[in-house]
């Protein structure tokens, strides 16, 4: 196939953006973006009872969070109903489809009889070759004339060649008796009209391909390249479902996973590039191809996701990381950071990034920079603030007052104090952590003092030392 690559993502707006759907969108996005092609978005909203504006919004927000930008306007499948019907009527006019007046009772009776005789229950309409003069004045559907002989071969880029006997295909309905088009017709017409060259979707649609190919062939349209990707399973090997935990893309945002890490991990679910686990968007676009998608279902592993996300947090630029943290707090309905907190968090990122796997993890380590006096000391840290430790802080604080406020200057003062008092730095580190952060596990005490600055650091140390006098 020559010309520009055009892929599409076509979710139904009946709920949030499922993580499996997000991966399908990602695969389409990567394939198009890596080849200078177009990535289109179509909302398949023909099911008017189940489709909701809220679900459409949730899908768009999920894609926006994942950074999966699409080309052109969002296409509504429902709005193309007139065009879909035109194609069915054209096939009717050309004798490639026919009016079927069979009632639901007649179809049910046919299937009961076929089942009893052990035959195929695909309905064989008596109206397929009926003369128009015999047509009654009654409601009818329009059915396509499926091929009765030979085979249909789906040349799939992931599954390989899949052969289906044509006698297994039914005369699929194109237009219902009320004149509305069915989903199968709408998909084909939309894909053709949108110029889609590659249909990359879940392998639960594989059987649909043979039926949709009937419409392509009847219209004389070029077939797209098909790539049906395996579904995602949970760690237990069963199809991913609600029992496995979060399923919607936005839920993962609210749990504090960075978008770049999520893209990286989802790309590795069912696709590989050698042994590469961690890669950038630029590399993913360059490397992604259909040949390297596996045939077996991939297993969603939260620990691997966290590991990849931690690596992405570590290499993120501070400004972009800070903005994503702000977005995370909003998505998780957490209080927003004040301007002073934002400034201190930004200044602290250099000593936090390589230690966190998620944003809640990072913010816990950043607690010293976003908390304020008086410092609330957790129980584990409070054990480091006994009378002896507070005495150390009381003696050390005046010496820090005149220190050069640099890592070298701070290290020199604390080393000198330890040497003079014949104590190890570890004896001092616990009280310093408790005084500066109220936590037992923190970044380096020197990093904390550098981020907080002389005035705030000394104030916190003084507060902790003063408490000794009130006991």
UniProtKB/TrEMBL annotation:
<keyword id="KW-0963">Cytoplasm</keyword>
<feature type="domain" description="Aminoacyl-tRNA synthetase class I anticodon-binding">
    <location>
        <begin position="338"/>
        <end position="464"/>
    </location>
</feature>
<keyword id="KW-0436">Ligase</keyword>
<dbReference type="InterPro" id="IPR049940">
    <property type="entry name" value="GluQ/Sye"/>
</dbReference>
<feature type="domain" description="Glutamyl/glutaminyl-tRNA synthetase class Ib catalytic">
    <location>
        <begin position="4"/>
        <end position="306"/>
    </location>
</feature>
<dbReference type="InterPro" id="IPR033910">
    <property type="entry name" value="GluRS_core"/>
</dbReference>
<dbReference type="InterPro" id="IPR004527">
    <property type="entry name" value="Glu-tRNA-ligase_bac/mito"/>
</dbReference>
<dbReference type="InterPro" id="IPR008925">
    <property type="entry name" value="aa_tRNA-synth_I_cd-bd_sf"/>
</dbReference>
<dbReference type="Pfam" id="PF19269">
    <property type="entry name" value="Anticodon_2"/>
</dbReference>
<keyword id="KW-0648">Protein biosynthesis</keyword>
<feature type="short sequence motif" description="'HIGH' region">
    <location>
        <begin position="11"/>
        <end position="21"/>
    </location>
</feature>
<feature type="short sequence motif" description="'KMSKS' region">
    <location>
        <begin position="239"/>
        <end position="243"/>
    </location>
</feature>
<keyword id="KW-0547">Nucleotide-binding</keyword>
<feature type="binding site">
    <location>
        <position position="242"/>
    </location>
    <ligand>
        <name>ATP</name>
    </ligand>
</feature>
<dbReference type="InterPro" id="IPR001412">
    <property type="entry name" value="aa-tRNA-synth_I_CS"/>
</dbReference>
<comment type="function">
    <text>Catalyzes the attachment of glutamate to tRNA(Glu) in a two-step reaction: glutamate is first activated by ATP to form Glu-AMP and then transferred to the acceptor end of tRNA(Glu).</text>
</comment>
<comment type="similarity">
    <text>Belongs to the class-I aminoacyl-tRNA synthetase family. Glutamate--tRNA ligase type 1 subfamily.</text>
</comment>
<dbReference type="InterPro" id="IPR020058">
    <property type="entry name" value="Glu/Gln-tRNA-synth_Ib_cat-dom"/>
</dbReference>
<dbReference type="InterPro" id="IPR020751">
    <property type="entry name" value="aa-tRNA-synth_I_codon-bd_sub2"/>
</dbReference>
<dbReference type="InterPro" id="IPR045462">
    <property type="entry name" value="aa-tRNA-synth_I_cd-bd"/>
</dbReference>
<dbReference type="InterPro" id="IPR000924">
    <property type="entry name" value="Glu/Gln-tRNA-synth"/>
</dbReference>
<dbReference type="InterPro" id="IPR014729">
    <property type="entry name" value="Rossmann-like_a/b/a_fold"/>
</dbReference>
<dbReference type="Pfam" id="PF00749">
    <property type="entry name" value="tRNA-synt_1c"/>
</dbReference>
<comment type="subunit">
    <text>Monomer.</text>
</comment>
<keyword id="KW-0067">ATP-binding</keyword>
<keyword id="KW-0030">Aminoacyl-tRNA synthetase</keyword>
<protein>
    <recommendedName>
        <fullName>Glutamate--tRNA ligase</fullName>
        <ecNumber>6.1.1.17</ecNumber>
    </recommendedName>
</protein>
